[in-house]
Amino acid sequence: MNVIKHNQFNYNDLVWSKLPDVFDLNQPLAIVAWAKPVESVQLSFLNTFFVLDVSQENCSANTVIFDTQRGLLKTNKTSRRCLQAVWLRADFGLKQDIERLALHLNQTQRKLPFIKGDVQLLPLGAVTRASTSWLGAHQLTDQLALSARRTELVFCRRIHLKTTVNFKMLMGQLERAQALQTLLLSERAGEHPFYFEQPVVMTQPIFSRELARDRFRQFAIDLMLQTQHPTTAQDIEGYLNSYFGK
């Protein structure tokens, strides 16, 4: 049995030992200065724990990505585009299911999170904005109220982010995301979502039709993002069905 493991709350010490433990999000340019430029970067479902929108700052970057294994990365991609890529890489229909279940729970669509398996990415602003920052609740180990309008977020029991997020509102958002995740997992049991410490049993040959289909899907998504072609996830699935069959 081949086992693939993702370790929650573990970070790459070789990378993070060269970076500060505390970041003040009120000073975004200081954070940008620490980040490594990577233009073709993608968010890691399990390892990315914060996406900082710096599109309004006087710098060439639009987004800084906090990642347990890769450290700090900066890109000229907007956070909106980074999250669009996340939705495209997820299962077809996932966003529609989350919207439907949020409506069922009387939750607002204004701050609709991305949820799949253990992964919870929560927008700190309205998702209708051109860009906003995103919090990876699946790597959050503590949250501290510094004042009425200041909250300190602790990730991996080591990395501290000081934010202007209202503590009470954040706690409510975390609770709503948890309720949504519980309901979503009960509906989508048996899928292959992203879990920490999840054993994955390889039951098919390495060059199986399903593996080839997955690789073609990822290639199509990457090509679409690079060329900014107006193709939807539904279009890609249609092409795959015509080639591989349903």
Helix content: 25-40%
Q: Biggest sheet: strands, sense, closure? A: 7 strands, mixed
Tally of alpha and pi helices: 7
Oligomer: single chain
Tell me the strand percentage band. 15-25%
Classification by helices and strands: alpha+beta
Strand segment tally:
11
Would you summarize the structure shown here?
35% of the residues lie in helices and 21% in strands.
How do the helices and strands line up, and which of them pair or pack?
Blueprint: H1 13-16, E1 22-24, H2 28-34, E2 36-37, E3 48-53, E4 63-67, E5 71-75, H3 79-89, H4 94-104, E6 114-116, E7 119-123, E8 134-136, E9 140-147, E10 150-155, E11 159-163, H5 167-187, H6 209-227, H7 233-244
Parallel strand pairs: 1-11, 2-5
Antiparallel strand pairs: 3-4, 3-8, 4-5, 6-7, 7-8, 9-10, 10-11
Structure report:
- The protein is α+β, with helices and mostly antiparallel strands and 246 residues long.
- The protein contains seven helices and eleven strands.
- The chain has helices at 13-16, 28-34, 79-89, 94-104, 167-187, 209-227, 233-244; strands at residues 22-24, 36-37, 48-53, 63-67, 71-75, 114-116, 119-123, 134-136, 140-147, 150-155, 159-163.
- The radius of gyration is 18 Å and the shape is globular.
- The model is unreliable at 1-5 and 198-208 (pLDDT under 50).
Which descriptors would you attach to this protein?
246 residues; alpha+beta; seven-stranded mixed sheet; 7 helices; 35% helix; globular
